[in-house]
């Protein structure tokens, strides 16, 4: 295997960009009508169409890239070391995040939604006792919670699944399977076969299992993310696959944008319709959603492969920074939004301020964390500071 084929710098850049997109997306969630932890007094549907530009594919893209990273790590370390490393790097930040980073989010949520009058300390006493009495009707808040950190337990379980599959099949047969899959995804099959898998899962499971981020019952999300994660692991070392993705990048981008326009129109038309009035149009929309989802991933990877296959000091720095920023960002958005609310800024100005404050605070905290050995594992970093971060194979998430 050519070592140069293993250095997928473009996926590092894509992963960095995708995590930073979360900062913009979760800032946007404060201003749209969709349910979120806290809401701006100015919340409306104004930017919802723009939010839909990334909503169908951003998390799926992260699981694809994480599958590639997992394949590199597993190939380098072996199954046992891989499981130990993934468990430590994912579960330690998850537990720390659930009990230190995340709690301000549900605190401000219950203050806003159920007019909770207690102090933060009073709330934390209830939080660690798994109190389930914060309810609006039948909608009750489960505590403790992982909120935006749901990605970590899902990724951990998928890594265990990958390790088990490789252990059962053997490394040689797993690599052969990867070659077969990569070779099969050529021509029209590169687009339509993954779309078919995503569409079948959406048609069969979404109504019965809406997205809850409850790991044990979130079957539609698993039907989406497990195949994409495993696909990333299977094609990780196949240079021909990534070149085929590169070759169709413009067609994929056009398909994704056209599908987005139709999706936005569908939601606008059906927003006030009864389910029985929508009928089979919902099934057609779900197939289209899968097409947009996969086409956008192909476009991002294709353009990334063409233009971002290079290393730099910035990549090495941001590769380290992105995981701590991910852990911190949503709590910072929620806290800063409540601090700025009394000023009653215009939404555009306030949103810009939220992004600036969140990124500034995230990187400021990262600069402290990366210099303090005991803090590093709590934010997904290795104990020992390395001079050079390994490309995508060393991605923390």
TrEMBL record:
What InterPro entries does the database record attribute to this sequence? Acyl_transf_3_dom (IPR002656), Glucan_succinyl_AcylTrfase (IPR050623)
Q: What is this protein called?
A: Acyltransferase family protein
One short Pfam name that applies is Acyl_transf_3
List keywords of the entry alphabetically: Acyltransferase, Membrane, Transferase, Transmembrane, Transmembrane helix
Picking any one GO molecular function of the record gives: acyltransferase activity, transferring groups other than amino-acyl groups
Write out the transmembrane intervals: 12-32, 57-75, 87-104, 151-169, 190-210, 222-241, 248-267, 287-305, 317-339, 351-369
Q: Which domain of life is it from?
A: Bacteria
Residue stretches making up the Acyltransferase domain: 9-365
